[in-house]
Amino acid sequence: MADIDQPSPWWSPARHADRKPFLTARGAITRAVRAWFDEQGFSEVETAILQVSPGNETHLHAPRTELTSNDGTRATRYLRTSPEFAAKKLLAAGEAKIFEFARVFRDRERGDLHLPEFTMLEWYRAEASYDAVMADTIVVIAHAAQATGIGRFSFRGRTADPFVDPELLTVAQAVERFAGIDLLATISHGEGDRAALAAAANPLIRVTDDDTWSDIFSKVLVEHVEPNLGQGRLTVLFEYPAPEAALARAKAADPRVAERFEVYACGVELANGFGELTEAAEQRRRFVADMDEKERRYGERYPLDEDFLAAVAAMPPSSGVALGFDRLVMLASGALRVDQVVWTPPAGET
């Protein structure tokens, strides 16, 4: 006899019926967002999932596979964590405005807001400031809410109105407000002063001997800042500290910060955008440093995509943003978890 406590599979008629309203909302949002991009003159692209490198950030992990050619030689490939590398090659090729509903993969990430396979909505504008894609992001989120008729996002007791003007906060302002730390005082020449930040943060978080400046910053952000963002309305958190620039260019007026922003609703991070770095040597330096740190922590490193680095040098000044589409659908449909808003959850994840 079957165990009566065993939950039915997600594809059982009863469970699928429970999820169907969220999936219907997903379709409405997808159509609305595609229509908006079409009106703005964007081209929808489909880029390759298998990549030489999945991305070169310290804490991102990707599934890997091997391909075998006709002569029996084997080559390692990775499932991408983002379509960013391929999209920037298209910018270098001459595309000016592109977007993609991209299937992406991230290992070691599970939870109500995380799946190992998910959809990322990513778009780029050539010859545009990051303020432009920041404004795009607010409009796309509003279109999603309009498509479902929801008036207010809700998640874990927090609410946010997607139709009112967002709160604009620099990272330094947010850290000062919610943690009482002068973050910029701990940054010099684009590098973080680990001792200075540890001293300032020690009363608020647990700082270990192994923590880097970035680790301490991340703990402060997650524990003291992010829960306060996107309350009542969206929050745009911008001017990220230079040590957290990733693929963003430094701000010309203040090299302690980078042209990077994130958008939050109900404490949930929805989008991460950049004024894109176009200096290949600097991008290489950052990648190597991140891979050195990845190897130190996790005992592995990903190769550099030399074709991508060549494209960075060739691409025009551009800005882009990656938005977690499943999270947006979750908030705009009233779902409680991202696995409720995907048609077929990854095997073993629900």
Automatic annotation (TrEMBL):
GO cellular component: cytosol
SUPFAM superfamilies: Class II aaRS and biotin synthetases
Classification via InterPro entries: Aa-tRNA-synt_II, aa-tRNA-synth_II, aa-tRNA-synth_II/BPL/LPL, EpmA, Lys-tRNA-synth_II_C
GO MF term list: ATP binding; lysine-tRNA ligase activity; translation elongation factor activity; tRNA binding
Chain ranges of the Aminoacyl-transfer RNA synthetases class-II family profile domain: 29-345
Keyword line: ATP-binding, Elongation factor, Ligase, Nucleotide-binding, Protein biosynthesis
One GO biological process term: lysyl-tRNA aminoacylation
Pfam families cross-referenced by the UniProt entry: tRNA-synt_2
PANTHER family attached to this UniProt entry: ELONGATION FACTOR P--(R)-BETA-LYSINE LIGASE (PTHR42918:SF6), LYSYL-TRNA SYNTHETASE (PTHR42918)
Record protein name field: Elongation factor P--(R)-beta-lysine ligase
Organism, scientific name: Bradyrhizobium valentinum
